[in-house]
């Protein structure tokens, strides 16, 4: 989507994801992260960190923001997982997406009857009722916010934990000074792993030349932020994981007009997950050898299917 339509759609929800709005939500994100770690402790080791923390935290946060009733959480999480998983068949993924769109349709209608203190009710009152957007546009926006940010955040938490465990000296420093070093570790995780590496897809509108490469009008381009994040002209020794990098102008959330709308939310979720985890489980470690962890298909965004941990 391009401006001006993009500007309008993005402008409707941008306030809810601003840095200030996210800071106001931080205590609630922190509480959710702590509760999930408590639950892991209660279950006892080994536990699948991917399932119990990395996936559950972003879902809990977006459900609260969108005002989704608790009774629907489990069903929705399952459907989002089927829609987004590389191992689902195209037919199952399409059916799950259709079910989610229908759910959002029902949710928008119910918010029209009984508005609450949530983003969808806000959009109903300020955008739908005055006729600035259609019912369909609102459904699409709510659907996008529901599905966009769960696997990406989960992957960055999973890979971040694995990478910190593989760098015990840096992990020890982070545990000793979490206030300063957790945010720096999160930036480095976003640089080093680049969660959404195929997201920046574009079509050239006119013939152009970038760095000696001709691109013709109509050709597709992937601006590979994963490659930019390993640019040795910007990041000295780019293949080294280093939580002390400063400055660290990583491009894990993209750049420009379409830069991730939820970049501050995603950072806060990752920060609170890592802080809660290593504070409550100082001896956290993998419960299986790293070679047994299953990574997703290499031509998709890298992620893990499960991350068994012990403490
Ligand atoms: C670590 C987690 C995340 C990463 C690495 C990530 C990455 C990205 C990237 C690279 C883009 C730019 C795409 C482009 O230029 O075409 C993007 C856009 C977007 N992201 Fe995220 N994202 C994350 C979390 C989230 C979350 C939690 C949400 C929602 C709750 C979200 C919602 C969106 C939306 C709606 C866009 C489209 C923005 C636009 O086109 O104006 N993302 N994200």
From TrEMBL:
Entry-linked Gene3D superfamilies: Cytochrome P450
The record's annotation in SUPFAM superfamilies points to:
Cytochrome P450 (SSF48264)
InterPro entries for this protein: Cyt_P450, Cyt_P450_B, Cyt_P450_CS, Cyt_P450_sf
Alphabetized UniProt keyword annotations: Heme, Iron, Metal-binding, Monooxygenase, Oxidoreductase
Keyword Mitochondrion listed? The answer is: no
- Give yes or no: UniProt keyword Iron: yes
Q: Which GO terms describe its molecular function?
A: heme binding; iron ion binding; monooxygenase activity; oxidoreductase activity, acting on paired donors, with incorporation or reduction of molecular oxygen
Which family does this protein fall into?
Belongs to the cytochrome P450 family.
What protein am I looking at?
Cytochrome P450
| Species name | Volvox reticuliferus
């Amino acid at each position: 989507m391009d401006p001006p339509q993009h500007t309008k759609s993005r402008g409707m929800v941008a306030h809810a994801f601003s840095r200030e709005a996210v800071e106001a939500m931080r205590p609630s994100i922190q509480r959710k992260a702590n509760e999930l770690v408590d639950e892991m402790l209660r279950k006892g080791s080994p536990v699948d960190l991917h399932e119990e923390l990395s996936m559950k935290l972003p879902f809990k946060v977006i459900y609260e923001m969108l005002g989704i009733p608790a009774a629907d959480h489990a069903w929705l999480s399952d459907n989002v997982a089927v829609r987004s998983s590389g191992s689902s068949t195209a037919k199952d993924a399409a059916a799950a997406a259709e079910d989610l769109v229908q759910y959002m349709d029902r949710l928008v209608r119910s918010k029209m009857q009984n508005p609450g203190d949530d983003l969808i009710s806000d959009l109903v009152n300020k955008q739908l009722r005055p006729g600035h957007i259609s019912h369909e546009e609102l459904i699409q926006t709510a659907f996008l916010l529901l599905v966009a940010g769960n696997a990406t955040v989960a992957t960055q938490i999973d890979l971040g934990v694995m990478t910190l465990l593989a760098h015990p000296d840096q992990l020890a420093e982070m545990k000793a000074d979490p206030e300063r070093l957790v945010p720096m570790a999160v930036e480095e995780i976003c640089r080093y792993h680049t969660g959404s590496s195929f997201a920046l897809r574009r079509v050239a509108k006119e013939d152009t030349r970038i760095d000696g490469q001709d691109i013709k009008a109509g050709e597709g381009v992937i601006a590979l932020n994963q490659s930019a994040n390993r640019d040795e002209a910007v990041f000295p020794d780019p293949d080294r994981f280093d939580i002390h990098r400063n400055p660290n102008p990583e491009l894990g959330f993209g750049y420009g007009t379409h830069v991730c709308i939820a970049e501050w939310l995603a950072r806060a979720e990752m920060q609170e997950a890592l802080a809660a985890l290593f504070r409550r489980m100082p001896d956290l470690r993998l419960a299986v050898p790293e070679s047994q962890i299953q990574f997703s298909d290499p031509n998709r965004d890298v992620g893990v299917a499960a991350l068994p941990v012990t403490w």
